[in-house]
Amino acid sequence: MILSCLLAFSLALFGSDDYENQSAKNTVRDEHPIGISLVGGGVCIGGLSRDAFISNTINIELCAGWGFGGGLKYHWNGADPDCKWSPYIGAFGGAAPEIEFFDSSGGDWGTSLYFPLGVHYISRSGFSFCVDAGYLNLYGSSYPWLSLKMGWHF
């Protein structure tokens, strides 16, 4: 009995990504709508993010780290049940402190806007990977910017 449970758990956790739900054609976004990830870049510069699919195509996200922020992503092929790599476009806003390496008084906080274009992967087991690029407007200047997220969707 214990061996059967361990085998079933192993297959569910490490099973093939080609496995399909036989009862319905759910997307990976239906099966794993809520995620938590480590983030590098983006509107909060780096830290943790928490996201949720409120539909197959709309994802909301909050992040905190070297700053904080939140936003929306639109996955234009998110309703496709066979799609694990989902391209998206997004809009984020937030705030981050100025980086002052030689000033111990602490920097001022500035608002930020980030408009990324990226791709999000979610495996059938829940592993999540996301990369995007766009322009970050921070402290009144615009920069080309990247974001990388890796985590788990439940």
Task: Name a few traits of the molecule.
single chain; 154 residues; Porin; 8-stranded antiparallel beta barrel; 2 helices; 55% strand; elongated; disordered N terminus
Biggest β-sheet: strands ordered side by side in the sheet: 1-2-3-4-5-6-7-8
Described by strand count, sense and barrel closure, the largest sheet is: 8 strands, antiparallel, barrel
Number of strands: 8
Query: Per CATH, what is the topology?
Result: Porin
Percent of sequence in beta strands: over 45%
Low-confidence segments: 1-23
Question: Helical stretch count?
Answer: 2
Percent helix? 10-25%
SSE ordering: HHEEEEEEEE
- Principal-axes geometry comes out as elongated
Ends: how far apart? 26 Å
Per CATH, the architecture is Beta Barrel
Rg calculated over all Cα atoms: 18 Å
Q: Structural class of the helices, strands and pairings?
A: mainly beta
Mean pLDDT: 84
Number of domains: 1
Highest-level CATH class = Mainly Beta
